[in-house]
Amino acid sequence: MLTLGRDPATGDPTIEVAHEALLREWERLQTWIQANRDSIARQQELALAAKRWVEAGRDEDYVFTGGRLDGFIQWSDSDQVSLTVIEQAFLDAGDAKRSADDAVTHERLEQEQALRRKAGRRTIGMAAAVVALVVLASAVLWAATRSPGPKIALVQGVSGGEGDIQQLIELGWQNATRDLNFEAERLVPLIDSENDMQDLAEDGFELIIDGLFDEGAAVYEIAKEYPDVAFVVFDRMAAGLPNVSTIHFEREGGAYLMGVAAGLRTETGRIGFIGGLQMATTEARRTSFEAGAMSVRPDVVVDSVYLGPFHDSSSPYLAFDLVLATASDMYRSGIDVIHHSAGQAGKAISAAAAELTDELDRALWVIGSEIEEQRAVPADERDRFLTSMWKRWDLAVQLVVEDYLAGDLEPGLHVFGLSSGL
């Protein structure tokens, strides 16, 4: 039930599952897949990006950059990761482009500094002495009057790429540490987040922000064990504990506006929605999207598809190939705008839109979800985005810290949305 072969592009050996029964019945294989799910998703994303890079003639505009490149290089350095020749060349090209860009920037800065030194050489000594005295006096006064502030910790997941939720959370944390007075600690657990949070509570941290989006109850058990420590969790059911605050983003208002945008843009009169799992929150989002579209075009037809649940333990929110196939079928059927609630896998919709716009000879559009999604896809797909419904997790994190320091952070449910500007 396994087939051996070689990758046609690189010649690397491959192993493929030849029968789906193997996925259902081989428990050890399921365990391996579950343990390496995030790595598998990253490998799929990398393989797709490397393929497009090769198809574009290895154009440097297609390579990863910034934090997205750093995340993939760090992941690829793991002993458990084995890249194909093309995938490694793709990452190397991104690293080489960054080095070249840094060299150009460095040369420009050196030229600017040389000009400044030449222009100000006669007066810079006296000015520097005055500035140094002012800075020294300010530093002494600041050190004498400023207390360390309360101990606040952020526990968050690994970033999945440019502009994703975890990156937004980290940005909000950086802004808070820059602008506010508190003793900060940021952790990205690789194995045991429960023990890490317990250690933080033991070490005297007064507020622990759980940015892992883990549906488990571990944080609630820790909150019961440490009633004097305040905890904040994101997008979960309110726990009813006196020391736990729950931050939730309402989806209905934003989804309604996305529907309005789709209804105004569609030329075929047919739009689509792709969801991961059919849950109450996803249904509320779907119906709001449909209502928004019908408010500006009453005759619009909205086709919806849910991806899961699957028979195995895999997540529909990481099913990139399934989303690509589903979106392609929807576009071919006459739909020209698709919105989604399919997590990371939703990034595959823009690939379908970019590929089929020329083939079908009509403009195909994507409406992103959760983040400013057009920043997280290859350059040649970005013009297929009509807009994105993204949640300002960066502002939410900063507001949580501000409210805690001001004594205004209450336990219970806190709902953010259009009315709060987030």
Q: How is this structure best summarized?
A:
With 422 residues, the protein is α/β, with parallel strands linked by helices. It has helices spanning 21-25, 27-35, 37-55, 66-76, 85-120, 124-145, 165-179, 193-202, 218-225, 252-265, 280-296, 320-332, 348-360, 393-405, and strands at 2-6, 13-17, 151-156, 183-187, 207-211, 230-234, 244-249, 270-275, 301-306, 337-341, 365-370, 385-390, 412-416.
Secondary-structure blueprint:
Elements: E1 2-6, E2 13-17, H1 21-25, H2 27-35, H3 37-55, H4 66-76, H5 85-120, H6 124-145, E3 151-156, H7 165-179, E4 183-187, H8 193-202, E5 207-211, H9 218-225, E6 230-234, E7 244-249, H10 252-265, E8 270-275, H11 280-296, E9 301-306, H12 320-332, E10 337-341, H13 348-360, E11 365-370, E12 385-390, H14 393-405, E13 412-416
Parallel strand pairs: 3-4, 3-5, 5-6, 6-7, 7-13, 8-9, 8-10, 10-11, 11-12
Antiparallel strand pairs: 1-2
Mean pLDDT, all residues: 82
Order of helices and strands: EEHHHHHHEHEHEHEEHEHEHEHEEHE
Percent in helix = 40-55%
- How many DSSP helices? 14
Sheet with most strands: strand arrangement: 4-3-5-6-7-13
- Poorly predicted tracts of residues: 129-133
Q: What structural class results from the helix and strand content?
A: alpha/beta
Task: Give the total of beta strands.
Answer: 13
Shape: globular
Q: What share of the residues does DSSP label as strand, in percent?
A: 15-25%
Question: Could you describe the largest sheet, including whether it forms a barrel?
Answer: 6 strands, parallel
The value of Rg in angstroms is 25 Å
Distance between the termini: 50 Å
